[in-house]
Amino acid sequence: MEALAEYFKVFSEPNRLTVLSALQEGPRNVTAVVQETGLSQALVSKHLKLLTIAGVVARKPEGSLVFYQVLDHGIFNLLASAEKHLVASREQQLQALRVAI
Questions:
Q1: Which of 28, 30, 51, 73 is least crowded, fewest Cβ atoms below 10 Å from its Cβ?
Q2: Contact present, 71 and 24 (Cβ < 8 Å)
Q3: What is the pLDDT of residues 58-71, one digit of tens each?
Q4: 3-state DSSP: the chain helix, strand, coil percent, rounded to 5?
Q5: What distance in Å separates the CA atoms of residue 40 and residue 65, rounded to the nearest whole number?
Q6: How many Å apart are CA 17 and CA 51, to the nearest integer?
């Protein structure tokens, strides 16, 4: 369970999810991710490094550039499912508050 909890920590930072989202359509270099996300180059590089260490993203050098790509696109299904559960949970909470009033 600890390993699973550590894995999920990778997805607990909003900027990291933004960087991951920028890679959804395919490999990108740091400059492309910066342009797509509006985050600073330092921040994008930091999160790409963490995603690479976690085994979510792979680095692929091509000449003088390095491209990053998501290793398993199933991760986007997992994140979409988590988002659905979050929305449903919040709707349930709102419903309970309405009934209580």
A1: 73
A2: no
A3: 999 999 999 999 99
A4: 65, 15, 20
A5: 18
A6: 10
Residues 10-32 pLDDT 10s: 999 999 999 999 999 999 999 99
38-89 pLDDT, tens digit per residue, is: 999 999 999 999 999 999 999 999 999 999 999 999 999 999 999 999 999 9
d(CA 79, CA 37): 18
19 close to 1: Cβ distance less than 8 angstroms: no
d(CA 29, CA 61): 9
pTM of the model: 0.86
Rounded to whole angstroms, what are the CA distances from 77 to 32, 90, 98? 23, 20, 32
Q: d(Cα 32, Cα 38) in Å, to the nearest integer?
A: 10
Run of H or E residues at 10 = none
Q: How many CB atoms are located within 10 Å of the residue 18 CB?
A: 17
The strands making up 28-29's β-sheet, listed across from edge to edge, are 28-29, 65-70, 57-62
